[in-house]
Automatic annotation (TrEMBL):
Pfam families: DUF2254. Residues 425-444 are annotated as: Disordered. Keywords: Membrane, Transmembrane, Transmembrane helix. It comes from the Bacteria. Coiled coil: none annotated. This is DUF2254 domain-containing protein. The chain crosses the membrane at residues 21-44, 70-93, 113-134, 146-168. InterPro entries: DUF2254_membrane.
């Protein structure tokens, strides 16, 4: 899985991604590249390459009629290959998305192997068609484009090998653990490193509002720096990637107004708003997708709690990797490289709190999943305390585990399950709260 790391930096970055990471862009390039390459090989044949091949005993066909038949067969095979691959691709994506989640399709469409395979099949089909037009069944052998015929055979061999690899990859697409593993790795990577700073009252001189309803695609902080120029002052991006905004809702606040030199449209390029959530929005999308896979796996229609356990484990790994983005209450996340850029909602809590609450609601009826997630919270908390990180973060993990325990116990009808859930929490959180009572109350 070759997903983009995201989120996209700005409107242009988002637009380029929608073009490049599509099924049609690379195959379209292959189609347009086929004609000039065929013409180049034909020119080389007429300039002496065919004669050189005959003089050196490279004679792939008996006569012109055989050459034409060979290329015609190649056209038919390539047409069958590309039809087969398109059909199997749609079938696999339909089956896999129905079991795992339709939003995984956005990631599968970005797989380089799929796009390269489609481009190769498209290129070879057009290459063979144009080569067929150049074949004259009545021409003597020295007038045949022998190099072009050899190129057709060579590309056919490459296509057979690539199709075998591509079909194997399509079959592996349905293997859910591969997708969950890649999602977990990508979810562990954040777009920016943030740090905490005191949250202060600021008189904002300019407000930039969303011109439409939709989902924020990304934040281009470098473009924001250029737009502000020498104006300086603080800037607060009020909408994090993946966040839903309404028309007229505030996207950006500026402490110092650069005036008419920079229009609202120019600032809107910093915080582009798209029509739907997508993988390009980065970790915020991938974390929620892991929760979606777990919730779908726990639905009565699927009832695959082992997939939910795997998703819970990958979420735990992502939590651990993202712990450096934690910001305590009363503070605000700011960009490490430029602390004048405030990024509320782009810290750990903004990434994980809502998805983990959604996971609790889905997992509460499955004691095995609840116990696994409580254990994960406890293991992460132990590492956090050993690293002497924020005690408020450690209490946040305790609160999540406690809420999951209480919710699971409240809906479980079997005393043994309630005892197991209670024991899991007691084993993982038997030590007293590491911070003061005041901090614990704040965290709660």
């Amino acid at each position: 899985m070759n997903a983009s790391k995201g989120p996209f930096l700005g409107r242009l970055d988002w637009l380029l991604h929608r073009i490049v990471a599509s099924y049609w862009s690379l195959p379209l390039a292959g189609v347009f590249a086929a004609l000039p390459i065929v013409l180049a090989i034909l020119w080389l044949d007429r300039e002496g390459l065919t004669q050189w091949m005959l003089e050196n005993g490279i004679d792939p066909v008996a006569n012109g009629d055989t050459a034409k038949d060979l290329v015609a067969v190649s056209v038919g095979i390539n047409a069958a290959f590309i039809t087969l691959y398109f059909s199997l691709t749609l079938l696999v994506l339909t089956v896999a998305s129905s079991n795992l989640g339709v939003r995984l399709v956005d990631r599968w469409l970005e797989k380089r192997l799929v796009r390269i395979s489609l481009a190769g099949l498209s290129f070879t089909l057009i290459f063979s068609l144009v080569a067929l037009m150049a074949m004259d069944a009545e021409a003597p052998k020295e007038k045949l484009p022998l190099a072009l015929i050899c190129a057709v055979v060579f590309l056919q061999a490459v296509n057979v090998a690539m199709l075998t690899v591509a079909l194997h990859d399509l079959g592996r697409t349905i293997f859910v653990d591969r997708s969950i593993d890649q999602l977990g790795q990508d979810a562990a990577e954040g777009p920016f490193a943030v740090q905490s700073a005191p949250e202060e009252e600021v008189e904002w001189a300019r407000k930039v509002c969303s011109p439409r309803e939709g989902y924020v695609e990304g934040n281009d902080l470098e473009l924001l720096r250029k737009r502000l120029g020498d104006t300086g002052g603080r800037a607060r991006i009020c909408a994090a990637p993946g966040q839903h905004v309404l028309k007229g809702e505030t996207l950006l606040l500026l402490e110092r107004d650069p005036g008419d030199d920079v229009s609202d449209d120019q600032f809107l390029s910093v915080v582009p708003v798209g029509g739907f959530r997508s993988d390009g929005q980065g970790a915020v999308f991938r974390i929620r997708l892991l929760v979606e896979i777990a919730a779908r796996a726990l639905s009565p229609a699927v009832n695959d709690f082992y997939t939910a356990l795997t998703s819970a484990d990958r979420l735990g790994a992502a939590i651990l990797e993202q712990r450096h983005n934690w910001v305590n209450h009363g503070e605000i996340a700011v960009y490490c490289e430029n602390p004048s850029f405030e990024l509320p909602g782009q810290d750990f809590r903004g990434l994980f709190e809502d998805p983990l609450n959604a996971l609790r609601q889905a997992a509460c009826q499955y004691p095995s999943v609840s116990i696994r997630m409580i254990n994960n919270y406890a293991r992460i908390r132990q590492i956090v305390l050993e690293d002497d990180q924020s005690h408020e973060f450690a209490e946040f993990l305790r609160r999540l585990a406690r809420e999951l325990r209480d919710h699971a116990i409240s809906v479980t009808g079997f005393d043994g399950d309630r005892d197991d859930i209670e024991a899991a929490f007691a084993d993982g959180f038997s030590d007293p709260a590491p911070n003061s009572q005041k901090e614990a109350e704040t965290a709660s």
